[in-house]
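Thread title: Can someone regenerate the structure for this chain?

I was given the following input by a collaborator and told the matching structure tokens would be attached. They weren't. Posting the sequence so someone can regenerate them.
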Amino acid sequence: MTRDTDVPLQALAPWEKYVGMILGGLEKLHQQTIPILTILFGFCLLVIYFHISQIKAQMVAVIALRGADTYTRELGEMQEYYAIEVVQRLHAQGVKSSGTNQETEGAIPLPALLSWNLGGQLVSGKPGERVRMLSAYPFPQAGDVAQLMDSFQREAWEFLNQHPTQSFYRVEQVDGRQSLRFATAGRMQQKCVNCHNEKTESPKRDWQVGQVGGIVEFVYPLDSLENMTGMNWDNSYRMMGTLVILWLGGFGLVVLKLRRVSGELEAKVKNRTHELREVNNHLKVEIHERQLAEDTLRQARDNLEKRVQERTGKLAASNAELIREVAERKRAEDDIRKLNAQVVQRSAQLEASNKELEAFSYSVSHDLRAPLRGIDGFSQAVLEDYADKLDDSGRGYLQRVRAASQRMSKLIDAMLNLARLTRAEIHTKTFDISVLAMSILEDFQKLEPERKLKCVVAQNLLATADPQLIRAVLENLLGNAWKFTGQQPNPCIEFGHAQYKGQAAFFVKDNGAGFDMAYAHKLFGTFQRLHAYTEYPGVGVGLATVHRIIQRHGGQIWADGVVDKGAAFHFTL
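Best answer:
Regenerated them for you:
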């Protein structure tokens, strides 16, 4: 990682030039601050004035549009009401109706004529405002009332025929004044249809309900509304002027503050410029030192390249050696494949041997037990039936025969148990081995309740193994401890877990008969005993069974002891 000061001199050379340009620009901007801000403020005022004018025009147009819509809608409703409530009732009484402004005795005006006259009365005295009723099918006596005069009226007629429920409007110049022209459709009602279709002077006699019979046009100058709302806009402009005056006062205060701040800033900039010059000088010195270091590194690189070339030659030789080793390894792999094939063959042979061993075990279990039971049974029968005919020697011989046959039966049981345990499938799980050890010791105590001995079992020890096989291990180890402490005045048995010879292992200790370490290699052999059968009974298979179970779990077992001072068996899983 490089330091921040590791910058080429060429990149720092124009620093003073850039600083000068920036300071010059700030100075010019400072000199023209007031004109620039004044121009910006004036531009803002123009934008606000333009926006207010637009809002004013939009408001006037909206008000005029709403007024025209309301006016024409009420005029149409009045015409419909007049046609239904007046004309129809008077027609029923024999009163005639007239479609012209000429006085006709006993006649009432038609709804369209009444609406036309009423609209004229409403806009009379209001310059620029007009109300006209137009139709493409006027009565002959209606004159120019019904004629479509200009493009707006023609467009309105086409639009309202397609959209009779809507309105048509446009803002344009009328007689030199900006005006709103607004038109709505007059739709034919049932009574109107009957009347128009029955009159002989009607230019169209196939009217239907809902058709557009004519349009009502309303012309409204917008400047009249502007005059009505002018007072409010004058107040808005006065408020804008007040804001201008307030802004100028505040702006003057800000300018004074800015000048004071500008002076302080210039002083800080000068100090900073001086500091930067000093830093630049230090950087020049550091860059010079860096160039010297680069020269040194360049020389070191050249030397390193030479060494790399030498090393490359050595690596080439090593590579050739590796190639030879790879070839030898391939040959070794071929040998391993051959050995694996031999192992497979040997495994098959071992499997066959195991099957033969199982057959042998079955034979021992069934074929040898019967003769032994016969020997023991007949010996007992002779002792019971012919005891008075035998002397002490004969009875002693028969008792020894019985003891030997019973011992041989125990040997057979031990052999079968050993074969069964070494062939049994392992089901591994984690369990509390402390509880298992305590249960086994409690079983021994129940068999010999008269014995008093101290049992120490470490609590909460967990093991990951086959619980049934580990039970056989602890039964043999704790059983040996129980047996070999039988002649001790203060027997003690301990089960725990500790570091022993650099390994974490479980252990079973006792203070019993112990053994001579010179014969420790015989402990785990089958039918190997270090004590006389008459002194400590047994068949010499228990530790061999333990050894094979521990090996099947991938662990180790070892022992140490002292004669008459006890023994300790350590095992790992």
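The first helix runs from residue 9 to 12.
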